[in-house]
Design a protein that fits this description.
Rossmann fold, about 25% strand, 22 strands, Alpha-Beta Plaits, alpha/beta, globular, 4 domains, about 450 residues
Length: about 450
């Protein structure tokens, strides 16, 4: 499978790394020679230096023989033109583009991205995806991450174990006897820099990030079992009124009118614009790093503070200040992955990484076939795969304890005829079952054999 990626920034590089590890033929285009040189030195990809929307550059990149174009440069217009050229001149079957400006995505222009207009098959809007991810975390207090699966019949939930977690130092096999009615499976543990795909004898310790798959209607009970019974958000302060802050506030106003939203925006003109956008949200023109402004915004009464300015440093520092001023929990937007190693030592409850969210969203559309969705879990942690079991699969018709599961994999859930089955050793997989499976980063490629279908792109 041949894929051309235009843009060697953080998102383009991350996608190239993922797909090259799975054996795809990848070519990356960027006009910054230093970026493509660095990429070529670290992973097995072909690189082309040039403008990603110029026909001659696209032809040099092999677009004439490509199965897919993924356009993720920083310029929306370059991404759109690249897709148009890919369709008109090279007949590329699938075109994915990152489009950040919401002007293009306004429903008033719904005919823009069609075969008669700009032929883009999948449009990814990072700001919208990040805002949705933040909203999910607001809706489920205590969760580091939450991903709905199988039409939201089950969810992947990430939590951090604290000294108050009642099931510390408890072998996982005892969870069944402790919570016999709960459909929950722990699929991954992050302990420092280690990724652990747990066995029945493994235990959880203070400071671990634990990921489990649970029935959606039992999500709150599962969080309580991990010592997370944080109060629901009734007051939220958003630090930063850019597109992400705007989208979060819009979603909360539309879907959670019971939440009182206050937004702090430093730019006066932007603040005036935002104040006209909302019926109920309060917009304050001021610096989120100013303690007096935070007090005016009622930070001491807020269950949740959300730092989403355009600067990582401001997000981290304003989050710490908000926590010190009384916010019960903080959600912090961090673009640079280098900050991730520091977050565990700070009083930051949830870190949201736009790159990881964007890459995960793109991969969902890249992988097709029997693979319904693939979700990247944290940086270099692993992936949650949702797929159908085919008749030819080696897992079908035998108890799970007899399935030769690759090292680094763990079953999370099985959905059969719309009903959730918690996988146990005696569980037998049937043809057509929807399987939810966690795979550590190094094991993703081996999972294809379980489903007797490659993690294909078509």
């Amino acid at each position: 499978m041949k894929i051309v990626i235009s843009g060697a920034g953080e998102v383009g590089s991350a996608i190239a790394r993922y797909l090259s590890q799975e054996g795809a033929d990848i070519t990356v285009i960027d006009q910054r020679a230093d970026l493509v040189r660095q990429l070529a030195e670290t992973i097995d990809v072909t690189t082309v230096v040039g403008h990603a929307s110029h026909p001659d550059v696209l032809e040099r990149a092999g677009l004439r023989d490509a199965d897919m174009l993924i356009a993720v440069t920083y310029a929306d217009e370059v991404n759109m033109i690249a897709c148009e050229i890919a369709n008109a001149l090279f007949k590329v079957p699938t075109k994915i583009a990152r489009v950040r400006s919401q002007v293009y995505l306004d429903p008033s222009w719904s005919d823009l991205f069609t075969q008669r207009g700009i032929p883009i098959d999948v449009i990814i809007s990072p700001e919208v995806e990040v805002a949705r991810a933040i909203k999910r975390r607001i809706e489920v207090p205590g969760a580091l991450d939450i991903i709905p699966l199988a039409d939201d019949k089950v969810r992947l939930v990430g939590v951090r174990c604290s000294a108050q977690t009642p099931i510390l130092s408890t072998p996982l096999r005892q969870l069944t006897s402790l919570f016999p009615e709960m459909k929950i499976v722990v699929v991954g543990i992050k302990r420092g820099d280690r990724v652990i795909v747990p066995k029945a004898e493994d235990e959880m310790f203070e400071g671990d990030d634990v990921y489990f798959v649970v029935a959606s209607d039992q999500c709150q009970r599962a969080l309580a079992a991990f010592g997370h019974e944080e109060p629901a958000t009734r007051r939220s302060v958003i630090l930063g009124g850019g597109n992400i802050g705007l989208f979060v506030a819009r979603q909360l106003e539309r879907e959670h009118p019971e939440i009182r939203v206050t937004m702090i925006e430093n730019d006066r003109a932007r603040a005036e614009f935002l104040s006209r956008e909302f019926k109920n949200a309060v917009v304050i023109n001021g610096d989120a790093m100013n303690p007096d402004i935070l007090t005016e915004a009622g930070i001491h009464q807020a269950e949740t503070a959300i730092a989403v300015t355009q600067h990582d440093e401001i997000n981290v520092l304003s989050s710490l200040l908000a926590k010190r001023k009384g916010a019960q929990r903080v959600i912090t937007l961090v673009n640079q992955s280098g900050y991730n190693t520091l977050m565990g030592d700070l009083e930051i409850d949830v870190v949201v990484n736009p790159r990881s969210i964007t890459v995960s969203r793109i991969l969902q559309h890249v992988r097709r076939g029997r693979i319904h969705s693939v979700h990247t879990v944290q940086e270099n942690f692993g992936e949650l795969i949702e797929a159908d079991a085919m008749q030819t699969s080696p897992m079908v018709g035998k108890p799970l304890r007899e399935v030769n599961l690759p090292t680094g994999c763990r079953f999370g859930a099985i959905i059969r005829d719309g009903k959730l089955i918690t996988p146990r050793g005696e569980t037998v997989v049937a043809t057509g079952d929807r399987i939810v499976l966690f795979a550590a980063k190094d094991a993703v490629k081996k999972v294809e054999k379980l489903f007797s279908v490659r993690l294909e792109y078509f």
